[in-house]
User: Fold this.
Amino acid sequence: MAKRNTDVVENVDYKEDQEYEYKMAREYNWNVKSKASKGYEENFFFLFREGGVYYNELETRVRLTKRRLKAGQQISNSKLVVKHRPLNKQELKMQRYRDRNLEPLAEEEDMSEEEEEEEETDKKDRSRSKSR
Assistant:
């Protein structure tokens, strides 16, 4: 962690020639539930801002539980050693692909102009047929 602190002070993400060591503090088990899972319960995220309430459905739920040691089991002294290197072309391509999948789809405005015009025309046609 001392190397990481030095990087923060020097305002760099990492140094390419350095190895960074991380000691494992805890282990977790995870349980993932999505809409396709049996027993899925809908969850929503609410945001109260500037006199309004906004919400979104959380479609995936991940529950982390601390992994308990079994009787007679020793604490793990595992370490993760990271040495940064530039990504190759294939890795860069895959990284961009994953980044795009994380971003929400560009949803169209409520309705396109064409759809709005069609809807207005339909309303006019219906009101004409009612008045006859």
Observations:
- DSSP finds three helices and six strands in the chain.
- The first helix runs from residue 2 to 9.
